[in-house]
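Lab notebook, bench 4. The sequencing result for the construct came back, and we need a structural model before the next group meeting so we can plan mutations. Quick request posted to the team channel:

Model the 3D structure of this chain.
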Amino acid sequence: MFRVKSRFLRQFIASFLDLLPILTVVSIFQLLIIQQPFPDWAGLLAGMVLVTLGLTLFMYGLEMALFPIGENMAFAFARKGNIVWLLLFAFLLGFGTTIAEPALLAVSNKAASIAADSGVIKPDQNAQDSYALGLRLTVALSVGLAIVIGVMRIIKGWSLQSLIIAGYLGILLMTVVAPPEIIGIAYDSGGITTSTITVPLVTALGIGLASSIQGRNPVTDGFGLIALASLTPMIFVMIYGILI
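Done. Here's the predicted structure in token form:
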């Protein structure tokens, strides 16, 4: 119990130190540049404590559950030697974690609302819901495919640099032919996929898989899945924009 409390306290302090630069910058601009007091000091302090506590619980939970689960399942699939089940698990992991991303939900709903206001889609709720769902499914499918490619890269020893270059060339090509209304959303989709839920599980999968395969290095081979997961949504969302 003492060790648990000690670890939690250390994580709480680390989370507060991570957030301290943000609070410092906001305070300097608010008090010295804008020269206005904070409207609600009590609310600011309470919010800072809650954010720090939430970040602490999140990081603590990652260390206790998500990272071990991802690594253990990667080890188990590698020991079984069944590549079909491993690739299916990789796809479903990428798809499931992405479809559950709060950032993706927020951006897709906002994109649907703006698309309706600008006349890109019909200005009714059904059209907006359909557009937002299609956007979320497109991004989730692209991330699932990216994780499959990343797992195959680890197994086969493919060059990460070559895959990244090919991905960016594909993005540039699609940017030329995609409708202007979808390009910004597509580029943002690449960033929102690498968020709170996707990153820890996918990273744990890559590290665990690289650690369990002879001849692979967790440092040089275990990472890179997130980079691929941020490229494919841009291409897929621009294709989605062309199709709709």
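The mean pLDDT is 83.
Will bring this to the meeting.
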